[in-house]
Amino acid sequence: MHSYRRGLCNLFFGIALLTSTRMESAQSDFVKGMTVSCQTSGWEWATPQMAHTLDELKSLGVNSVSIHPYAQIRNDGHVRFRVTDDNRQITVPLDWARERGLSVMLIPHIAYWGTKFLWRGEINFQTNEEWDRFFGDYEIWIVQMAQLAEAHGAGTFCIGLEFTNAQKFEQHWRKIIAAVRSVYHGKVTYGGNWDSFQEVKFWDALDYIGVLAYFPLTKSVDPTAREIAAAWEKKCAELEAFSKAHGGKRFLFVEIGYNQSARAAAEPWAFKTGGDNAVEIQRRCIEVALDLPAHCAVIAGMYWWKWFPDLPSHEEENYRLQTPEIKTMIAKHWR
Predict the structure, then answer these.
(1) Which of 15, 35, 140, 187 is the most exposed place for a label (fewest CB within 10 A)?
(2) What average pLDDT does the segment 137-157 reach?
(3) pLDDT (tens digit, 9 = 90+) per residue, 181-203?
(4) How far is CA 227 from CA 214, 230, 292, in A?
């Protein structure tokens, strides 16, 4: 009987050790990412302030950064982009990051302001001619961005994000992915929105299931950290099931963030700030999410939205993380 119990204990210990080892392995290669944004068109990424920003982020434990160069969508489907000064605003920060031992995700964005579209998920056209125009222009631009990513050592490339309507054109995206892979040899992903990534049909052609992780967590007026953690536990179970159904492919949160808002846990995507306990609720949401790699091995990494080079700022900067309290929190989990 004693021998049986010893054997059973050894079995349980071995299982626990294996689970712990796998979890530690998952955490050791976890992408601890930060999106470095810009207040204008991106010239900020090639300034000395950007170099200082990269140094600060590394000191906090960040091991990867992302930047998001822009092209402009037009109402008729055309995608317009300019090459300014040999794209220094892209290539310089890529080189600086590599010199500091930081990996980079290049995640080109479509700018929609000044058009009939209120966000990228609304980009939609009525005719095949417009769709062909959009995908033709978009592929030219995105392949050019992939070539820059390859030439300057970006470890991950995101082919697009939030295209709730456009992502339904599976064959167009498979063609874009093939074109990108012909010039770029790092990891490739796409950013599906939190409420529509399940509809994407081309995850098999990508290295990560990319998602903008603005999942609603709880409708509680003043949610506790425990409530937020419980919501994430449920969400992680859903992500694990989705991953299993897609061959064990892991998730990459190409964006995650919480505004300083009383509604941060209920509507993480909302731009409105303020309300009762806004500061505390934001901090609780961030703290729980930073702890996710210890509990949800299916997540390969996350990029927080967002940080700015230390430049004179505009009045409104939603999702800004540059407060002493949040910096301390990041360092506690990631350094």
Answers:
(1) 15
(2) 97
(3) 999 999 999 999 999 999 999 99
(4) 16, 5, 14
**Interatomic CA distance for residues 210 and 34, integer angstroms:** 15
Write the CA distances from 244 to 18, 46, 170, 239, integer angstroms: 20, 41, 21, 9
Beta-sheet pairing, 187-193 with 209-212: parallel
Q: Which residues have C-beta within 8 Å of that of residue 21, sequence separation ≥ 6?
A: none
Q: What percent of the chain has pLDDT over 90?
A: 86
Domains in the chain: boundaries: 40-212, 215-246+255-295+322-335
Dist CA 70 CA 315 (whole Å): 22
Phi, psi values for residue 18, rounded to 5°: -65, -45
The pLDDT, as a whole number, for residue 46 is: 96
Which of 304, 259, 295 has the alpha carbon at shortest distance from 105?
A: 304
According to the model, what pLDDT value does residue 194 have?
98
Pick the CATH number of 40-212 from 3.20.20.80, 3.30.43.10, 1.10.1740.10, 3.30.450.20: 3.20.20.80
List 109's β-bridge partners, or say none: 70
